[in-house]
Amino acid sequence: MRSKPLLVAVGLTAVLMGLVFFAGWLFGSRSGEDAAAVPAPPRASAGAQWHPDSLLEPQIDAIRRGVPVDQEGSPPPLARVENADLKRVRAYPMQPPTIPHTIDGYQVDKNSNRCMLCHARANAATFQAPPVSVTHYMDRDDQFLATISPRRYFCSQCHVVQTDAQPLVASGFQDIDSLISAQPGSE
């Protein structure tokens, strides 16, 4: 019976834990008058903003656009697709060009790519569409392929349609041509 002291220790520990739990339950609950003495945390109002110096002030997530966390906000209206076929300037270097027309109903899957009907290098002149860049015909080892590369096959993975949505974040990007032309004596 070498394990007898171990069993006694485990039993005493269980009894002690039970007593601590019971004492916490009995003395830890507040009576109605004690609970009233503790101030309630402040509630967020519709125009409240977070202040970094105080964690007690109401906080509102910027994505919620001023709607308190305990209220349901209404979503902004969906942006409409622009179908003007006007090429936009890029918002940052190396940005994939946006699609200036609607692509609803375009089939782009492993069997067919509707975009390539007009934008394949062989058909671009016929449809007056910009041809796909030669980089889309290169594999990961920079070897040129006869057809579009599988890693560039799904166009909407990088290219998005142009909408009338206002940007959420302002951009001060200027392309190199506008910077050079803005310098004095660059003519």
TrEMBL record:
SUPFAM superfamilies in the record: Multiheme cytochromes
Keyword vocabulary terms for this entry: Electron transport, Heme, Iron, Metal-binding, Periplasm, Signal, Transport
Localisation: Periplasm
GO molecular function: metal ion binding
Sequence intervals crossing the membrane: none
Gene Ontology biological process: anaerobic respiration
Entry GO CC: periplasmic space
Transport as UniProt keyword: yes
InterPro entries the UniProt entry points to: Multihaem_cyt_sf (IPR036280), NapB (IPR005591)
Pfam families xref list: NapB (PF03892)
Keyword Plastid: no
Main function: Electron transfer subunit of the periplasmic nitrate reductase complex NapAB. Receives electrons from the membrane-anchored tetraheme c-type NapC protein and transfers these to NapA subunit, thus allowing electron flow between membrane and periplasm. Essential for periplasmic nitrate reduction with nitrate as the terminal electron acceptor.
Protein family membership: Belongs to the NapB family.
UniProt name for this protein: Periplasmic nitrate reductase, electron transfer subunit
Species the sequence originates in: Pseudoxanthomonas wuyuanensis
